Amino acid sequence: MAHSSKPRCLTYLEATHAFADPDVQEDINDACNRLGQAMALLVERFARMAKDLHTIDLKKLDAPFKPRWDVLSKDLGDLLCLYRNNAGYISGRLKLLPVAARNMSGRSRRSYQETVQILQSFVTLSSEHFARTRSLVERALALSQQVSMFHAEFAKFVALRRSDGQKEIYDVAAKVSDVEAHTKQTCIMNAELSRPDITHLAFSVFRIVSSSGRRPNRSKIPQQRMAMSENMLKVTQAYHALELKGSELAHAQYTAQIRMHQTDCLGITQSTVASLACDTMLSLESGLALFLSIWARLRSDCGEILQWLHAATPTEPPQVLIGYQECGPSLYVALSNAVDSCVSSIDPSAIARAMS
User: Fold this and answer.
1) 253 three-class SS
2) Which of 152, 182, 203, 336 is most solvent-facing, going by the fewest CB within 10 Å?
3) Where on the tree of life does the source sit, at the highest rank (predicted)?
């Protein structure tokens, strides 16, 4: 994948060759593993917050916060377990399509009907699995909204007991709400995409690497500037807007912390809840964007293969098959490994222990 200072759309073959690069694969797997670790760590962070809220509840300053937080903690644990299961469906689909497509380039009259039947069965089952991902997205957005609302209520509780710094606290609450709204917008856009170009998939994967907090080992993923096609510009803008809102929240938190006393237990807890809410929403969005971009690519590739198979006259094979001929199943293998890496740290038994 050649470095270019001018943003441009990738071709399918360029993306295939990029994902076939061992250095690129290593950096993607490392970044996805870090994302999965961050998700798993959320459960422990929620558990620690529950103890802090219990300490505050003992002062009987307001209605108890911990019972409501416990509900959110359980929802998070359930969601991560579903995320892990969903990854298994996606990884399985990614491993099976190359098998289904293996003999398509040399189609014969004898195998034509069998090939079409296999691929249509693949598409049908994939659609059922994608419906589960859509359900997962809805649950994640509901959790993000509830966490944001909890923070808003807790921030109001803290502000009413402060003689100064109320404006800064309310600013943080507003920024948390902004992050939640933009997370929802980005997820919905990705879920509703139909037949996106390959750059959308590459962008969704590479942004995980860019935001992982660690420079890639040898590949030039963050330096590769990509542009979406014209019909995908709204997605690019949504990604950039979400990143901006995250930065605005960080600045608002810093401003609020300057006004905070080191012995201000309530203020420190409120700041921690804000950070936890933001990290939860952004981590879930990154993981869901990965899943949704892969499903969009699978649907698009399968649609192009079926259209080619049903063509009345012979035409050039679709790009997915040309890429398969040149690089084998490297694109789908790389994506499957990325998905597996993303959930390798999510252990249902560890989640259950943390919530007990």
Assistant:
1) helix
2) 152
3) Eukaryota
